Amino acid sequence: MFNKYDTMEEEEYEFHPVDLPTEPCFSPQVEFNDKPDSLFFNDGVRRIDFVLAYEDEDKKEYEKRHNRRECFEDNLMKMGMELEATQSVNEKLVFLKVHMPWDVLCTYAEVLHIKLPIQSNDMSARPSPWRFFSCITKHFYPDEKLISKESEFFTAPFEKNRQDLFCIKDKDHFFTPSMRSRMAYYILSRAPYEIRGNIKKFGITKLLDGGVYKAAYPIHDCRFNVKSQEPECPNERYLLYEEWAHPKSFYKMQPLDLIRHYYGEKIGIYFAWLGFYTRMLTWAAVVGIGCFIYGYYTRDTSTWSKEVCDPDIGGKIVMCPQCDTCQYWTLNSTCNTSKNLCIFDNFGTLVFAVFMSVWVTLFLEFWKRYQAELEYEWDTVEFLEQEEPPRPEYEAKCIHERKNPITGVNPTYFFSISPLQIFLLRFIISFYLCLYTNLTIAEPIKEYVTPQMATSVTASLISFVVIMILNTLYERVAIWITDFELPRTKTDYENSLTLKMFLFQFVNYYSSCFYIAFAKGKAVGYPGKPVYLLGKYRNEECDPGGCLIELTTQLAIIMGGKAIWNNIQEVLIPWLKNLIYRRCAHVTTEKVIPRWEQDYQLQPSSKLGLFYEYLEMVIQFGFVTLFVASFPLAPALALLNNIIEIRVDAWKLTTQFRRAVPEKAQHIGAWQPILQGITILAVVTNAMIIAFTSDMIPRLVYYWSFSVYPYGNNTENTMKGYINSSLSVFSTNDFQTVDDDYIHTPPNLTTCRYRDYRFPPGHPKQYEYNMFYWHVIAAKMAFIIVVEHIVYFTKFILAYIIPDVPYAVKEQIKREKYLTQVILHETNLKLVSKRLKATETETESRVAGAVA
Questions:
Q1: Could you give the angle at the alpha carbon of 569 between the alpha carbons of 272 and 511, nearest 5°?
Q2: Contact 500, 478 (CB under 8 A)
Q3: Which among 354, 1, 46, 307 is positioned nearest to 184, based on CA atoms?
Q4: Residue 215: in which H helix or E strand, if any?
Q5: How confident is the model at residue 621 (pLDDT cuts 50, 70, 90)?
Q6: pTM of the predicted model, to two decimals?
Q7: Residues 790, 801: Cα–Cα separation, whole Å
Q8: Residues 818, 821, 824, 828: is their CA dihedral positive or negative?
Q9: What confidence score (pLDDT) does residue 336 get?
Q10: What's the CA gap between 567 and 561, in Å, rounded?
Q11: In angstroms, what CA-CA distances link 638 with 120, 284, 809?
Q12: What CA–CA distance (Å, rounded) separates 268 from 260?
């Protein structure tokens, strides 16, 4: 097969492997010993740390692959690794098992600065405030008989020359399987496979892309649903399935230490963040449900809702047509809509919006504290990220460098202006797509149903379908742009793609919500002089109660539909792929299949790791925070989704995918500043929703300006007349732009009403804004400014008084540093003292000899 890398020059790279005293050790191809759960070579002694799979080709066109594979394996052995090959059960593949001897492990543990225990933690832990309820809370934690709590140690970076200072009780278990796999992958990523003079081609990634190897992965320790009978098997995968991934354990806390121990810190920190986010959502969901219940039980008692439904008030108010082909309608036809609007548009919503602004600050600050605890417990406090090797695509394509004449640095050029242009273009397209969808669908339907909610559900469903279709397109565009930028390392690639994908998804999911909240119904003119878009489409108008109920409908459909679709997709697709592979490969259960081949039949881990899981949750976080003032049930829906999401991700990871290569991670990476940006924007959007989308500010202005003094302090009486005051009068004789063939004005109808604050016909300033309009605008702007300043000030105070690192963790870090200095560096002092004494003794002997 043609290899795209064969025709491209590669930059010169000096590779210096670690020198090891071990001799190359390669076992010839051996027969499988019929132990399906074995984690060792056929000798039962050497542990399998990694597995490579390839097809044994004999054709001439595969000769280059064969040569590269032989060179690669020779270099692996020169670097101290031991190999053993075994034919697959179906005799199509060869599995190359990799083992790392003790000396190699010690060498690369020092290279990777892996922290290992030096002494038991002797600092007394603070008692938990929940210890008095342990008889109840223990049922919400994994079974301690199955998953015991890990012992706490002070740790230090491993040093090969000081092994006696570390707590090494058993060399076979001193390095955990995840550590061994991480070190094995580090070597595989740096072993050369082709040498031409000083230029070396290296790395398992390029060999996988070129088809030299079909797969490379660490193996699971057992089947997920059957406990292994091998005495050396820890059965951690089985325990994770039973106590974490199984649906019956949905109510239990996650065994984070075991997740980290089995999959590595990067996957562990994701599930820790997801679990913490879900727990914090509990408080927001309780308050949001309380706000919803309050609105539901007060909807029938609100004065404005009663006036709309009253046949003597709302039944006698004739409203102007809201489109060029619409007819007149009475206000009481929107009685149910008005009642439903009161559920979400009430004073409890304002309280909930302020609460969520404080909640999101507490979420981020408490997460920083929890993250600091995990950093200490998981030994990533001073995690030294190793210099990553260049990506194969970077090495293959980046063949020319131009040195900066001033700084002397070889720059990396990024295609940075196109993402911005595409982002802006995407926003414009989304805006007009939402507008066009509403207008083209709304116009014909409004003739047959009520004009207020005629197309809310239909447009929301169409918008959701369009969003899911465009997601695929924008994902490809983001990947194409990132590939064009040619980031040097995997981390650079992920960070660049993260920003682009989030911007595209942000616009894709939220553009329709922003349109309804801040554009729809804001520039419609008045019945005699409506505003047209592109000279053809008349801008949409909102319900007399505002667009808030439509925004709520949009949020509920998009948020709920996205959650359902994603969970179905995450469960069905990997399961179907595995099922199809087994059928196509004619895998039978009659033959005994070894552990490494069982894992080969699973789905490979994604090259982007947990990128899509993070993206899904961050988009949900935006729904929960950006528009929560219009939909207080959003946290409750997110909570329900996340409870399912944790188990779905755990089930998928444990049962349907190969074991991922363990990776170190100190935090959630580029997603943290994105979350911080969303929280800052959320304060503005919620304040603007309350000010411009809901009807709360006009009600308050009416309450204080017109009703308090005439009616006293009785709220039931003070809001009387509000509906009449919020509707302006229009003379039917002033219709000039409407064809009488479409709108039939009853002979006895001289005026109609519309939602606005304008002078009536006959006034010297007829149809111009009246003074009440400017009072409302001033009140809205004042509300936004005051609320933003109060909330931002509260956020600043909370962020200041809540330390990012708990005091107890700081003390433990200091204690650990002290012990490291005493235990490890004290050895140097002893060596110096011995040398000084030896020198003094030698000097004294020389002096004595000279005197004699």
A1: 80
A2: yes
A3: 46
A4: strand 215-217
A5: very high
A6: 0.84
A7: 17
A8: negative
A9: 82
A10: 10
A11: 41, 10, 31
A12: 5
Q: Residue 73 belongs to what H/E stretch? A: helix 63-78
Q: Are 456 and 557 a contacting pair, CB within 8 Å?
A: no
Looking at residue 674, its pLDDT comes to: 92
Question: Which three-class secondary structure state does DSSP give residue 746?
Answer: coil
SS3 state of residue 241: helix
Q: Which of 724, 344, 814 is nearest to 546 (CA)?
A: 344
Which tokens is 436 given?
Answer: 């066009």
Q: What are phi and psi of 526, to 5 degrees?
A: -140, 170
List beta partners, residue 663.
Answer: none
> pLDDT-derived band of residue 96, with 50, 70 and 90 as boundaries?
very high
Q: What is the pLDDT of residues 207-249, one digit of tens each?
A: 888 888 999 999 998 888 888 888 888 889 999 999 999 988 8
Q: How far apart are CA 835 and CA 840, in angstroms?
A: 9
Structure tokens at 170: 């058993």
- Provide the b/e sequence for 381-399 (b: ≥16 CB within 10 Å): bebeeeeebbbbbbbbebe
Q: What is the pLDDT of residue 194?
A: 83
Residue for token pair 């219009």: 630
Which among 729, 712, 711, 722 is positioned nearest to 776, based on CA atoms?
722
Total Cβ atoms within 10 A of residue 277: 21
Cα–Cα distance, 35 to 114 (Å, whole number): 33
Q: How do beta strands 82-87 and 25-30 pair?
A: parallel
First to last CA, the chain: 84
Burial 77-111 (b: 16+ CB within 10 A, else e): bbbbbbbbbbbbeeeebbbbbbbbeeebbbbbbbe
Q: Encoding tokens for residue 701?
A: 């202005």
Residue pair 94/52 in contact (Cβ under 8 Å)? The answer is no
- 153-157 and 115-120 as β-strands: parallel, antiparallel, unpaired? antiparallel
CA distance 39 to 227: 14
- Calculate the alpha carbon distances from 201 to 8, 19, 189, 785 in Å: 12, 19, 11, 60
The C-alpha atoms of residue 664 and residue 381 are separated, in whole angstroms, by 11
Largest CA distance in the chain: 141
- Looking at residue 167, its amino acid is C
* Overall residue count recorded for the chain in this entry: 852
pLDDT-derived band at 396 (thresholds 50, 70, 90) equals low
DSSP 40: B
Distance, in Å, from the CA atom of 676 to the CA atom of 361, rounded to the nearest integer, reads: 9
Question: Which residue has 């199955």 as its token pair?
Answer: 146
SS3 state of residue 657? strand
Backbone angles phi, psi at 211, to 5 degrees: 80, 5
CB atoms within 10 A of CB 847: 10
